[in-house]
Amino acid sequence: MKTIFKQKNKNGYTIIETMIAISLFIIIVMMAMNALLNANVVSNKSQKTRSIMDNMSFVIEDMSRSLRTGTTYDCISDGSIPGSTTATSGYGCGEIAFKPANGGNMWIYYIGQNASGKDSLFKKIDNAPAVQITPDEVSIDPISGFSVLGAEPLGSGDYQQPFVTIRLVGTITYQKVTTSFSLQTSVSERNLDI
Asked: CB-based contacts of 127: which residues, under 8 Å, 6+ apart?
């Protein structure tokens, strides 16, 4: 009697096929994780830069609000002491001084070096110590500054409403990524001066 062995039909995978499939799956998952982690890093840097830009916009808006309600603007470009009885106009002012709405001490905004040697925007009230109002990650460019038009007091022959332009140009450096920015706004004195 002759016995014939029939070979059974195999429906499974071999161990080598399974190992190859798992290896390919792990490689694809690792590439996807790398892309996801890179996207997360870029998103975090973008959010931090956006936060710094929002802070800069707030600084500009706060300055604008204070200047709009202030009086006696003084363009200081030569380092002279502000607070003279006559306000002066000028372009490319390094500092701007003015009296706030409540008529208190002189407020001064100026661009100067901070503790780390970067140029930053500072606020000073009369003889009090100056306070840096821009974030540490911001470096203000020397072409930034203020322009004041029509600041001369009434009766001096000036018939222009006081008008201030603030221009801030610089860079934001966060985790070795540098982003340029340029902000400018113009403010007119709210009280009539003509």
From this structure: none
